[in-house]
Amino acid sequence: MPRLSSTLLCLLLSLPAFSQEALSRQLSLADLATSAGTIVRGQVIDSRVEPHPQYRNISTIRLTLRVADAIYGNTGQQITYRMFLASGNFAAPRNTTKYRAGDELILFMYPESQYGLTSPVGGDQGRFQVLRTGGKAKVVNGLNNTGLFQDLGQVAKAQSRTMTQAEAALSRKQSGAVGLDEFVAVVRQLAANRGTK
Prior knowledge:
Elements: H1 2-14, H2 20-24, H3 29-35, E1 38-51, E2 59-72, E3 78-84, E4 104-109, E5 127-133, E6 136-141, H4 152-158, H5 165-171, E7 178-179, H6 180-192
Antiparallel strand pairs: 1-2, 1-4, 2-3, 4-5, 5-6, 6-7
């Protein structure tokens, strides 16, 4: 039993998603782009709960996406992430409802830990649903994009550049869904300038 407890503790401590800072404070879009190991837009192909391949008592979600746009990081046409499932329930997990087959998502994912685990940066803050209605595509995260764009002007200034049109448009938004194209353009800009924030 002590061995299992120490293994679980090691797994939890190695997973960036359990950083108190990331889960307790609101992150900006620049924070998300800076912390992510990969940023992808894709469609959920499969989402299933299964034991960790090495630690059978640890439940995980294995999420597979068909990649439509590798915004940041190296990915192929398909990518699979393994995420720790905090509920520990293999039979009726609640977290998998966030990842249904066919859903289109933009995910800001932490770099994979030494145990092969990852999660969206800042939990629901780094998981965006792409909503398509009336021919227009919009993007919104689990916090309704609240405060997400507040520091875009400061980031551009720190990088000694003028805000792009897309950044200027988003910086006026306090919350709510935003256009997919302008969102992706801003994320690309932030990812290209990582380390200069």
